[in-house]
Amino acid sequence: MKPRVAFFDFTGCEGCQLETLNFNLEVVDLINAVDIVEFREISSDHSDNYDIAFIEGSITTDRDIARLQDIRNKAKVLVALGACACTGGVNSLKNFYSMEENLKVVYGESAKYYKTIPTRPAHAVVPVEFFLHGCPPNRNEIIRLIKCVVAGKKFEQCQNPVCVECKLAENVCAFERGEFCLGPVTRGGCNAVCITAGRKCWGCRSLVDEPNINSQKDLLAKYGLTVNDVLKQFRLFNGTLEVAKQ
Amino acid sequence: MQNRVISRQDLAGFVDDLIKTKSAGDVIGIKAQGNKFNFGPLKSATELRLDYDISLLPPKKYFFPQQETVLKYEVEPAFKVEPVVEERMLCIIGVHPFDIRALQLFDAVYGGNNPDPNYFLKRNNATIIGVDCLNPIPKSFAASMGTNTVEEGFDLMLTDLGGDWFVTVGSNRGDSMMKKYGKGREATNVDLEKRNKVRRDAAKKYKTSLKMKPDEIPALLDANWESPVFKERSATCFSCGSCVMVCPTCVCFDVQDDPALNLKGGERYRRWDACMLPGFAAVASGENFREHKEQRFRHRMYRKGKYLLERYKYLGCVGCGRCGTSCLADIALPADTYNLLKEGK
Prior knowledge:
heterodimer, A: alpha/beta, Rossmann fold, 2 domains, five-stranded parallel beta sheet, 10 helices, 5 strands, about 35% helix, globular, B: alpha+beta
């Protein structure tokens, strides 16, 4: 029997779901391999009966917490899809301000009608089996995870920093171009797509298992960044991690 | 085999001829990439940058690609396995002597009693046109390693005499290519002395040196297994793998199966992998034989300076300096570590 798969979005831009649909012809193989029972970007169907739940977005309201717990109770496997679900993503930027301040900036006079809580990733609320990092996640990695779940194989996240794939892609190092790159401490699996496109790594795939943060800070300082600048580099995608708080 | 001297114009004509006729296969050459250099398909001799310092990746990528499918399999309707071996005929122009030495090490590792078909079906058909490196990068210590020049491992070796090119012929294939092209003249002893002077002058340009003879490295390592140098040097290591991804002598790969979504078949590929990466020595039980970065750092130094030499008769480091250049923590260059050990620090 094909696994029943459902997608749910929380606080985020839904770009991860779009990326999941961005498979060209492979999408046909995908829908032959699994039954997609809930995915609001492609269907108005709704189901409470699913095996694998993909969670997109971060958790930013009390209502989100209750909804995520309900999904967790129904799903056999929970997958955090994308940076917001895995680390809180860019939404974590608000954690560096008071919630009152955030509401006032965003809603102005109407702030009194809203409630918000500090941003947290899915696994801060419920247990999560798999993480698909990235903003957005790499579509080949999404496919690989689905293959592993369908075939009953162990899914291994990329353990190497972005530098490995960046070198394989034959890029000139972003530091040599005068950029401040988080590639040396960021989890690869993205084929170093940003650096290949002439930009730098902002760390959207979170940190590798053993990041050498001291070395990274020294490196950024060597290239002229202040402590505050360094923290800003980490906060864009990794605001809920210890590294962004010091 | 007769060495020759040809003009710049005739060299360009020779290269354009190779591109046009494909008589030596697809022509690959050293080209500019941003403000760096890299090997890539050559459309015209004008793209060639024989004055380059170093290529981003070594030319090994043409015989041992970053990722390569090695077999395809089916499990339904019936179990079937087909090897995938790509054969390719290539002419690579602008290979530096130390990169040629690295290919000789590769030949030894991938050859032996169980030659690797994916490697040799590309390697055996390849024409190597080298060029003497007159513009070494600051981290290169090839002159100390004796790899700044090579006497074999190429079909033709070019040396820039200023006006003309000296062409050292290194194989029968190279000899017949030059004869067939027919331009230029036979080299005299005066030309040869000019070539040797250019090489001697270039050897003086190396800014980094190994403070010992290369063949002293194994004994030095034998005496220093417990040295604090490895831990001190590796403290700032990112384990980012840059040093080993750009290395011309790193021969290791990982093998993975990639099943199709319908699970009826799939393919197996190999991809560059290396000992400075945390997962390299991890095994299925969860054990990791080189869990700590100082263990990986030390292993790499032994691999480059001792293990490969003992097994394959070639040192595992050719002194190209790519690792030291790409290392953001500036700890990767083997010469630096060997020098520290030698000084007893």
